[in-house]
Each structure stands twice: as structure tokens, then as C-alpha cells.
Amino acid sequence: MNFDDFIRKGVVRKATENNLLIKSLVKSSEEDLKFIKKLKITPVSARKIMSNYYDIFRAVLEALALLKGYKIYSHEAFTPFLEFIEEKTLSEHFERFRKIRNKINYYGESISVTEVKEHVEKIEILINKIKNKYFK
């Protein structure tokens, strides 16, 4: 499905730029990152830490969507949104992490400490790239 399909279905709506909400989402994501970085990734915590990193990543993308004039009501719609704004590589990474998170949250799959450490590192890099490009 492309971005226009999500708009037609009402899963994405045009929105007026809400600078207070955008700043709040970015600030919350920064605070969440500070908190979650303090947690030790263990076999017991790995699933939750991965899910939380994904949520922080998605919150930054929600702020980006608002900046571009859209409110997105479905995690699946972020991938075509990123393609729409010509962020193909970012869309590929997001889709990968969305699928990992879904497997963890909805299908009970486990994830190794090593995988989480690799994913966390990549998500932090992506978040910083987004913030530096769009929110500075």
C-alpha cells in the first residue's frame, strides 16, 4: 500500500503543524532514551528494551510526520510516509524494526541480547540523524 492509500482509508490525515506537540514528542523521546540507556540488556529485559526503543523511534517519526503536516494513526503507515518524503533508507530500517517489535509483542518471539544491542545502536543513530536533519 502506498501513502495515498493510507490517506484515503483515513489512517493518515492532514494536520496543521503543531509545534508544541512536535517539541513535546522530541523532548519525551530524549527523556525516554536517557532512562532506557540506563537499563542493562539481559536475556530477561531484551524483549522489553527492544520494544521500548522501537516506541521511541516511532515517537520521533510521529513528530516528523506532524512537521510535514500529517497525523499518522497506524504504525504500518510510517513506512510509506517515509518513502513519500524521500527517506527510503529510513523507511527500510523502520519497517525492519516494526516487524521485529511485532514478532516480540504479538507472537511471543524472543530476541537475543546481542541482537538487541545491535538494533539499539542502529536506532539511536537513526534517531540522531532525524533530529539533526529535521529538528535543529
Kindly describe this structure.
With 136 residues, the chain is mainly alpha-helical. The chain has a single domain (18-134), classed as Nucleotidyltransferases  domain 2 (Four Helix Bundle (Hemerythrin (Met), subunit A)). It is 71% helix and 4% strand. The protein has six helices and two strands. A two-stranded antiparallel ribbon has the order 1-2. Helix 2 packs antiparallel against helix 3 and helix 3 packs across helix 5 (88-107). The longest helix is centred in the middle third of the chain and has 22 residues, at 46-67. It is globular, with a radius of gyration of 15 Å. It starts with a helix and ends with a helix.
Task: Give the arrangement of secondary structure elements.
Blueprint: H1 3-8, E1 12-14, H2 19-37, H3 46-67, E2 70-72, H4 78-84, H5 88-107, H6 113-134
Number of domains: 1
Could you tell me the CATH topology label.
Four Helix Bundle (Hemerythrin (Met), subunit A)
Span between termini: 32 Å
Could you tell me the strand content as a percent range? under 5%
Biggest β-sheet: strands ordered side by side in the sheet: 1-2
Q: Radius of gyration, Cα only, in angstroms?
A: 15 Å
Mean pLDDT, to the nearest integer, reads: 97
Helix content: over 70%
Shape category: globular
Number of helices: 6
CATH architecture type: Up-down Bundle
CATH superfamily: Nucleotidyltransferases  domain 2
SSE order, as H and E?
HEHHEHHH
